[in-house]
Design a protein that fits this description.
alpha+beta; 5-stranded antiparallel sheet; 7 helices; 7 strands; about 15% strand; binds zinc ion
Length: about 180
């Protein structure tokens, strides 16, 4: 499923198979059950290396996305907001398949831009494809995805993750390739 600025989901779209996660960062975070199951595997494997990751954000309803978006437009202006956060209906978080990762270290919780160049996040980027995830908004692909680099935002795509990783493709490029065939 491709969700971006040109492929929107319906206002009322609520995915099936949402389950409550056990995130310590925040209560009441829901995710697609398969996505959560694979995240738990990743989290457990990383814990063995003493890398502690958690879910900072998961499923977001249309209404909630609307709130976040409107607040950012209000605080920072439209052009900033449009590259930093999805408009309601165009957020992958509405699918339940996207996770914003945070890292616990030295009794601190690191989120968003604080994660850049942390060894935990570098490890994550190199290994999530084994669990069916991709880094959704990579560095250097801003023009294709329409978003700034987001080292924290990962997306569950299932089996194609390995192919995308190996060929350094975003979901947009993958779907475009399929159309071209
Ligand atoms: Zn996100």
């Amino acid at each position: 499923m491709l969700v971006n600025k040109t492929n929107k989901v319906d206002n009322n779209y609520v995915p099936d198979n949402l389950i409550l996660t056990d995130s310590i960062y925040k209560n009441n975070i829901y995710l697609n059950n398969k996505c959560f199951e694979m995240f738990k595997k990743l989290q457990k494997d990383m814990k063995r290396l003493d890398y502690n990751i958690d879910i900072m954000s998961g499923y977001r309803s249309y209404k909630y996305q609307e709130k976040i978006y409107n607040k950012l437009v209000h605080d920072k202006g439209l052009s900033y907001a449009s590259r930093a956060v999805a408009t309601p209906g165009s957020s992958e978080h509405q699918t339940g398949l996207a996770i914003d990762i945070c890292v616990y270290k030295n009794d601190k919780c690191y989120i968003e831009h604080d994660l850049i160049d942390m060894k935990e996040i570098n490890y994550l980027h190199k290994n999530i494809h084994k669990y069916g995830f991709i880094l959704r908004y990579p560095f250097g692909k801003e023009e294709i995805t329409g978003y700034n680099y987001e080292p924290w935002h990962i997306r569950y795509v299932g089996d194609i993750s390995k192919y995308l990783y190996k060929n350094n493709l975003t979901l947009e490029e993958y779907y475009q390739k399929k159309l071209d065939k």
